[in-house]
Amino acid sequence: MSVAARLLGWQALVLSCALLLSACTDSTAQTAHQRGSAEARATHPATPRGVALVIAARRQIGVTVSYDPAYTRIPYPGGDVPESRGVCTDVVIRALRTQRIDLQQRVHEDMRAHFAMYPQKWGLRGPDSNIDHRRVPNLQTWFARQGWSLPITSRAADYRAGDLVTWMLPGNLPHIGIISDRKTMLGATPLIIHNIGRGTREEDILFDYNITGHYRPKP
C-alpha cells in the first residue's frame, strides 16, 4: 500500500472518531438540557396567592403565642378567637382571610348544603359555624371539593410556597400548616409555618410526620 493511501486511511479514521465524539457530546448536552428542564419544571415558583399566604402566615409569628383548642363561640361570618391564641387551623384561616377567603363562611355554607359529605366524627346533626372550619378533617374535605388537591410525594421540590399540607401526628392528631418560601440550611426542604402547640412558628417539619394531604389554593 502506498504512503498516500495509508495517509488517506488514517485521515478517514480520525474523521470518523471526531464525528463519533461530536455525536456523543451533543447527546450528553441534550440529556443534560432535558434533565435541567425537568428540574426547572419540578421547582415552579409560588403563585402570587401563595406568596401572599406565606407573608400573612409569617405575620402571625410572635402574635399568636399559645395553643388553645377550647370550643369558643365566635361571630359569623368573619369570627375569630383572640389573635394571641389559636390552633393549627387558625394559622390557615387567618392567612386565607387576607385573600378574601373566609373559611368559616365557605365551610359552613358547604356543610349546610352537603353535610353528609363531611366527616361524621363529632356526633353533630348539623353544621356549627363556631368550630367546623377549625377542624382539619373538615378543611381537607372542603379543599378537595374546591379542586385544590395535589399528589402527596416525598420530593421537597413538589411543595411550593403557599401550599397547604396536612399530617397525622402521633396519637391520631390531625395537623395542618403552610409551606414557607424559606428552606432548611442546606436549601433542600421548605420550612412550615404552623402552630403545633407553642404558638405560630416557622420550622423544619415537612417530612417529620405522615403527610395526609397536599393542597394548592387556586388563584
Description:
There is one protein chain. By secondary structure, the chain is α+β, with helices and mostly antiparallel strands. The chain is built from five helices and five strands. Strands 4-3-2-1-5 form a five-stranded antiparallel sheet. A hairpin with a 6-residue loop joins β3 and β4. The protein is globular and about 50 Å long.
How is the secondary structure organized here?
Blueprint: H1 3-42, H2 48-58, H3 88-97, H4 103-113, H5 136-145, E1 164-169, E2 173-183, E3 190-194, E4 201-203, E5 210-215
Antiparallel strand pairs: 1-2, 1-5, 2-3, 3-4
Segments where pLDDT lies below 50 for 5+ residues?
A: 1-43
- How many strand segments? 5
- Major sheet, described briefly? 5 strands, antiparallel
With helices defined by DSSP (H or I, 4 residues minimum), what is the helix count? Answer: 5
**Rg, alpha carbons:** 27 Å
Mean pLDDT: 86
Number of domains: 2
Under CATH at level 1, the class of the largest domain stands as Alpha Beta
CATH 2nd-level architecture of the largest domain: Alpha-Beta Complex
Tell me the series of helices and strands, N- to C-terminal: HHHHHEEEEE
- Could you please say which CATH topology of the largest domain applies here? endopeptidase fold (from Nostoc punctiforme)
Structural class: alpha+beta
Share in β-strands? 5-15%
Q: Write the CATH homologous superfamily of the largest domain.
A: endopeptidase domain like (from Nostoc punctiforme)
Question: Order of strands across the widest beta sheet?
Answer: 4-3-2-1-5
Report the principal-axis shape: globular
Alpha-carbon distance between the termini? Answer: 77 Å
Helix content: 25-40%
